[in-house]
Amino acid sequence: KTTTTYFIKNIIDKFCNMRTGVLSTVEIYTGKEDHDSHLTVPESPDLHKHFSQCRESGIPYLTMEVSSQAYKVNRVYGTEFDVGVFMNIGEDHIGPLEHESAEDYFLCKLQLMKHCKTAVINKNSDRFDEIYSTASQYAKKIITFGDSTCDYWVEDIKKEDVGFSFIIKGKDGYVNSFKISMAGRFNVENALTAFCVAKALNIDDASIAHGLYV
Hints:
Elements: H1 2-16, E1 21-23, E2 27-29, E3 34-36, H2 44-56, E4 62-64, H3 68-72, E5 81-86, H4 102-110, E6 116-122, H5 128-138, E7 141-146, E8 152-159, E9 164-170, E10 175-180, H6 186-200, H7 205-213
Parallel strand pairs: 1-4, 5-6, 6-7, 7-8
Antiparallel strand pairs: 1-2, 2-3, 8-9, 9-10
Helix pairs in contact: 1-6, 1-7
């Protein structure tokens, strides 16, 4: 989630020509605060303080990681998102300190799909049909990514001297090439995820290309 968060933030920074807000596993930036973070999602009073700080600082966008644990303990209760992303399901967070079962973990992650205006969903995620069905009941718009049956997918991935190049295609006829400077082929999917979020926000391709290659 962290890599995708920063792809999205970099794109939005370029689009807005300013440093925009972020709440992540790595840092907190709100225009008034700028420091390392200690929780992926702050406790609810702090979270709303950070939202307010961004608004007071004239920051129009905030990109944040939303953990399943945050939903379990109600840190994001009542928070509605313009765009929410469901990338995948793993087993990293199942245990006595977080989620007692895979089902509990999944149901907590699924809450995000009930609280976003636009849902961006990975077609290759386990339990995709359940995720899509839930989003269909709550979100005003759904964008899927993964393969050629989706709204957007990737073709022609090439390893470059630095990072990867690839082509993003869309079912509406969209075609454009992009690059990332990061190693790891899996980061192409992270970049595609960020691309979909940017499209949901009507961000131009030049800003997307710049944000992905930072």
